[in-house]
Design brief:
The chain has a 21-stranded antiparallel beta sheet. The protein has three helices and 23 strands. It starts with a strand and ends with a strand. The protein is mainly beta and 579 residues long.
Length: 579
């Protein structure tokens, strides 16, 4: 790709140079180099314009430089401020660059010791290259559609705050976030043309794209107050998302029938539609209390519920509509394993509660001790229904029709976590700090899964699992940090970590994996324990103000012990690693 960028930007420096040509170049340049004589602009507007002389891969150019090949022009930057009265200030920032589709409006009105109002909108375009992969052995590069892709992202917001000192503060903010357009994806289509047109060997080289249409409404409200010894906050979030996305893939494009196992062309395409609607509501609160000069306590609790509705499909076809084909159980080019799903509907409901409490205790100038406790509980209920076309035609039966099965899936899980930690830090040695930390965590939970074929008609249970687990984790670490000079840190750490996992399968009724079968994965694993010892050294050096170099070495040993149903508890793995 040969590219020449030809940009015109009309800014204040150009106006100054234009003036220099009329008033005398030496005097103008002297004024430019004399910072004390430079004028300052409280309010200003900059105009910008540009055009690109480019040949070659246009989508690649736009993606790499984030510029529209056809050029742009408009307001590059705008700033305006005004003192409305002795206590109120208005500020306005703006930008409008058609072509690059880059827009900004940011209005802020602030009244001292009272509050503020904010309103704004921001929109910008991101370019993508929809090309597939180049296969050098036979110079294969396939173009299936217009590869000049882009995605427009937007954010509309409003925020109001009442924030006087030493009083209850209130902040309310609303955001509308959007994404719309097309972008490339690594989920590529396969092609045998990359190897040989008369074999079934294939490589993933054909271009594919994602189509996105997303909206999110986010509303946040916060009440808070801060004083010398106490502070508290109550906040809530309402987040509603609407997604209507799709993957669009072409498979075995333009191949003759002889390249497949059947006497028809393997050329076909599929579209995977992903529709999601999510409602999230979170309520959280925190309290911070300074009991005395040596002790402070922090407590927080949150409650979150997430309700999600799913809809979508995965349809394989070659109909006249191109991408997003209409389902046809007997379309001409159907192949074995062209499975998909139709009329997907599903719902999930998640509830989560988290509570934490920690304290900071400073018994002396050099010691700080932080004990902490955390509790978490999460429950999830999920169910979905869909039709699954399967048993596609094969070489031995090329005219077989797809068989459509209606399937219902239901799952429930309940998970609890309790964790405790103690962190101690000592800073009494010159240029040294020493840390000791102990962590203990317990996880317990239950899970139930069911898959039913033809619900309400045959009610055939294909999968039914009920199980539970208990996981206990411990970690102990000691760390010493040495600061030999400013910008340089040497750290030495040792830690020991152990995890004990117990799994129980109270029900394992699977059509092909009966309780008496030798193939009961994953239910045959009953216990698994890990132990890790790690010694590491880390060197961090700030070579320059904008450059930091870090190197680390770990010597690590890990032992894994496993018990499977009907077998003794035994060592399964022992390894040593140099990292």
């Amino acid at each position: 790709m040969n590219t020449t960028a030809f940009l015109h930007t009309l800014r204040r420096p150009l106006l100054v140079l234009a003036g220099a040509s009329l008033l005398g170049l030496p005097g103008a340049l002297s004024a430019q180099t004399d910072k004390a004589k430079e004028p300052t602009y409280e309010n200003y507007i900059d105009f910008s314009a540009g055009y690109n002389l480019q040949s070659g891969d246009r989508p690649g150019f736009q993606k790499g430089l984030l510029l529209n090949k056809e050029g742009f022009g408009g307001i590059g930057d705008l700033f305006y401020t005004s003192q409305l009265n002795n206590a109120t200030t208005l500020k306005l920032r703006g930008r409008a660059l058609p072509g690059n589709e880059d827009y900004l409006l940011d209005l802020d009105i602030t009244k001292d010791e009272f509050g503020y109002l904010k309103f704004g909108y921001k929109s910008f375009r991101v370019w993508y290259d929809g090309s597939g992969k180049f296969y050098p052995p036979n110079m294969l590069l396939v173009q299936l559609y217009d590869e000049d892709l882009h995605l427009d992202r937007g954010n509309l917001w409003f925020e109001a705050g009442y924030v006087p000192a030493d009083k209850v503060n209130f902040v309310l903010r609303y955001d509308l976030l959007t994404r719309k357009g097309k972008k490339d994806t690594l989920f590529l289509g396969d092609s045998a043309l990359a190897v040989s047109p008369v074999t079934v060997a294939a490589r993933g080289v054909l271009p594919a794209f994602r189509a996105l249409d997303e909206k999110r409404h986010v509303l946040k409200a916060t009440l808070s107050k801060q004083s010398e010894k106490t502070g508290w906050q109550i906040a809530s979030t309402l987040d509603k998302a609407e997604l209507d996305n799709s993957y669009n893939v072409r498979r075995r494009y333009n191949e003759p029938a002889s390249s497949s196992t059947r006497n028809v062309s393997p050329d076909r395409l599929f579209t995977l539609k992903d529709g999601t609607e999510t409602d999230l509501f979170a309520l959280r609160g925190s309290v911070s209390t300074k009991i005395n000069e040596n002790l402070s306590v922090n407590t927080a609790i949150s409650r979150t519920t997430i309700d999600t509705t799913l809809h979508g499909s995965r349809i394989v076809g070659n109909g006249p509509g191109g991408y997003d084909p209409v389902f046809d159980a007997a379309f001409t080019n159907r192949q074995s394993r062209d499975e998909g799903y139709l009329h997907l509907t599903g719902e999930t409901e998640t509830k989560q509660t988290v509570a934490t409490i920690n304290a900071l205790y400073r018994p002396t100038e050099f010691w700080s001790i932080i004990p902490a406790v955390r509790f978490e509980k999460r429950t999830t209920l999920a169910e979905s229904d869909f039709e699954e076309p399967n048993n596609a035609p094969s070489a031995s039966n090329p005219t077989a029709l797809l068989i459509q099965e209606e399937i219902a899936v239901h799952s429930e899980n309940d998970w609890k976590l309790n964790s405790q930690s103690l962190d101690a830090r000592y800073t009494g040695f010159k240029n040294w700090t020493v840390n000791f930390k102990a962590e203990h965590e317990q996880n317990t939970g239950d899970i139930a899964e069911t898959q039913i074929v033809e619900p309400g008609i045959l009610n055939t249970i294909r999968i039914q699992r009920v199980g539970n687990f208990e996981i206990e984790t411990q970690k102990y670490s000691a760390t010493a940090n040495w600061y030999p000079k400013a910008g340089t840190t040497v750290a030495v750490q040792y830690y020991f970590k152990a995890r004990q996992s117990d799994f129980g399968a109270t029900l394992d009724n699977i059509a092909v994996n009966t309780p008496t079968s030798g193939n009961r994965y994953p239910a045959y694993i009953t216990n698994m324990d890990w132990e890790t010892n790690d010694l590491n050294v880390r060197l961090s050096w700030r070579a320059a103000s904008n450059l930091r170099l870090v190197t680390r070495y770990d010597f690590q040993g890990t032992t894994v012990r496993v018990q499977e149903a009907g077998l003794p508890f035994d060592e399964a793995s022992e390894r040593k690693s140099h990292i």
